[in-house]
Amino acid sequence: MRIFTIKVLFLFLIVSSYSSLSAQTSEFLRAKVLDQETGDPVVFATVSIKGKANGVITNMDGSFRLPITLRVAGESIEISFMGYEKKEFELQKLSPNDINIIRLSPATISLSEAVVSAKRKRSGLSARAIVRKAIRSIANNYPANEFAAIGYYRDYQIKDDNYVNLNEAILEVIDKGFRTNDQESSNIRIYDYINNINFKRDAQGERKYDYKNYKKFIDKAYLDSYGGNEFTILRIHDAIRNHNVNSYDFVNVLESDFLENHFFKKENDIQDDNEVLYVISFKQSIVKYLVHGKLFISKNNFAIHKMEYTLYDRIRKFENGQVDKQGIDNVAIFEVLTEYKRKYGKMYPNYISFFNIFEVGQLPEFIVKEVLLDGPKGCFIVKFNRIVEKVSASKKGNYDIRFEDKKIEIDRIKVLETEVEVYPKLSDKDFRNLIYKMDAAQSRKFDLMKLLSAEVTDVRNRGGVKVNEMKYETYRQFREFFVQEIKANGSVLKDTLFMKKDIPIFENQLIIKPDNFDEYWMNTPLKNIKN
Questions:
Q1: Facing residues of 35 across strands?
Q2: 381-394: per-residue pLDDT in tens?
Q3: If pLDDT is split at 50, 70 and 90, which confidence band does 424 have?
Q4: For an engineered disulfide with 334, which of 125, 356, 486, 523 has Cβ 3.0 to 4.6 Å away?
Q5: Contacts of 145 (CB under 8 A, 6+ apart)
Q6: Assign residue 286 a region: left if phi > 0, alpha if psi is -120 to 50, beta otherwise?
């Protein structure tokens, strides 16, 4: 008889001395959650303060930080992650001076549990039917009335495995419930925000998107601002909360488009906080794109606990045969991870992470400085900023010179070091007439570029660099919100001083700190994701 196994969380605590803490260590405990077998970080695990409503989520490097006061008070924490067993341990076992390593190891299910699991797999519902029931059950499984979610927001980029342009905030989302339109009805209070200057500020990454000049853009995609700021962009990418409006391609409207746009498959069940979940994978292959994702759905009431959605570029591949965590070698254009937790009988948000890549154009290394008309020589002079490669610079087809929008035929080309003399196939009369018109235009302060234009292509310098060739640097952009506390009856604050959604979070927004502000903290990551 086949024995089924799943991973179960087992905490093996090692106080690590390999890395020192930053200057802020007197205020916070630091720890990292790693997989016992692979050493990989356990990303977005929930770390809850036992007996309290608040907690934190592990970062991309598996790290998390907690106020040192929790250790002094003798508090305990629980760590849970989907597919693993919840575990508890005392904070006083954590070192206040080092980054503590918590390792998770696998365990096996007993034979009787394996038999029960096998019976569950014989459920008559197809993958598509399970997803359909989950979507139809959203109204019953998620809060219909107002609630508040207080948590840690951040946006940042990753460049060369380093966090750059890190902005952080503590926000309170006042959500009027799943029967309302989130964009129109929800309000946000800002408890605090900072542009974290301890992390490198990268001016290129902070540019605004520029699709016209390709100075900053998303290849094969477009990121709509939805009329709001960074947090508005993040919120619309929660397809579960926005199940009845257009969220993002190719989910579109979850309740009407999602089933039609994807193919579904049942995977092995997993467990989340003693609740057995269906795991439904889905895919789609389109001309330019590939879609891979997963849904984690309760077998009890079809509540969606988690949704993973990744859109890949079908053409662009990782270098050196690399693959991502799904075993896919295509480069991801964007990824959305959304998780809900059951509290007070309903499903409330736990976190949402939205990632996309973007390209930043670099100034060309090899350019045309200017094009001049040399009357005495009877030619045009093309000046470059580098020494040109003679073969490519000698080709007539690499020059398109026009006067009054008429292309001038080229007779011959003479290549110097950083200059190329282009001799037109014109009679002496026509060339003198050209000079006369140029002089007349210049005396009238007329824009000479409207008379004479020159385009140079495929000419290379001695290093093989093509003229005016743009180089692009790839960044990974993240926007994330991690809930630290849910207030099921709504906000305790009654003011109406909310965030202005149409301006950036970090530009002259009102800050409203509640009396219990010290109960919330920014889970700032380590500076390098491989630390």
A1: 104
A2: 999 999 999 999 99
A3: very high
A4: 356
A5: 177, 490
A6: beta
